[in-house]
């Protein structure tokens, strides 16, 4: 089931909790990759000092003030993308960061057919390639890099 926009138009903490265990589906070219969301982080309002919105509304944070259900993707350290989903009502800056996922067994990624994959994921013949278990992408930068999630998305 595809989550409807109204799912995200609710309390950010509740959305963050309920996203755990949901499947993130990403199509890249002809490949479809499914990943179970295993860790999230909630950012809520301008009083949340960890939130980009704590410094007010800026061109960079404009999407966070938008409609619930939209992707808020930004670059950190000049090199890593982070994937968030906007939550709550329009003009209230809130979002859930996807921090960790597990690529499932049935993914073409698991079978080594991933185009231009990096690191240990280049080939299942690599001794470091995890066999018989889900691939853990533990960190927002790793998720975006391996699932090709960028601001243009």
List the helices and strands and how they pair.
Blueprint: H1 5-8, H2 12-19, E1 23-28, E2 31-44, E3 71-76, E4 80-86, E5 94-103, E6 135-138, H3 140-146
Antiparallel strand pairs: 1-2, 2-5, 3-4, 4-5, 5-6
- Which geometry do the CA atoms define? globular
Overall CATH class: Alpha Beta
CATH topology: 3-methyladenine DNA Glycosylase, Chain A
Q: Compute the average pLDDT.
A: 83
Tally of extended strands?
Answer: 6
In summary, what is this structure?
Helix content is 12%, strand content 31%. It has three helices and six strands.
How would you describe this protein?
- The protein is α+β, with helices and mostly antiparallel strands.
- The protein has a single domain (5-146), classed as Roll (3-methyladenine DNA Glycosylase, Chain A), CATH 3.10.300.10.
- It is built from three helices and six strands, in the order ααββββββα.
- The protein has helices at 5-8, 12-19, 140-146; strands spanning 23-28, 31-44, 71-76, 80-86, 94-103, 135-138.
- Strands 1, 2, 3, 4, 5 and 6 form a six-stranded antiparallel beta sheet that branches.
- β1 and β2 (31-44) form a beta hairpin.
- Mean pLDDT is 83; it is low at 111-127.
List descriptors.
single chain; alpha+beta; 3-methyladenine DNA Glycosylase, Chain A; six-stranded antiparallel β-sheet; 6 strands
């Amino acid at each position: 089931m595809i989550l409807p926009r109204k799912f995200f138009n609710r309390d950010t903490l509740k959305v963050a909790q309920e996203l755990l265990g949901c499947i993130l589906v990403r199509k890249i070219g002809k490949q479809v990759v499914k990943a179970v969301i295993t860790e999230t982080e909630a950012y809520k309002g301008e009083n949340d000092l960890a939130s980009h919105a704590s410094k007010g509304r800026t061109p960079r944070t404009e999407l966070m003030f938008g409609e619930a259900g939209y992707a808020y993707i930004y670059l950190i350290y000049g090199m890593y993308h982070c994937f968030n989903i906007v939550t709550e009502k329009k003009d209230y800056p809130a979002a859930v960061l996807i921090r960790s996922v597990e690529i499932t067994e049935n993914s073409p990624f698991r079978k080594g057919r991933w185009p231009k994959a990096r690191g240990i994921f280049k080939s299942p013949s690599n001794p470091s390639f995890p066999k018989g278990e889900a691939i853990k992408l533990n960190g927002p930068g790793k998720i975006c890099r391996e699932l090709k999630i960028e601001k243009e998305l």
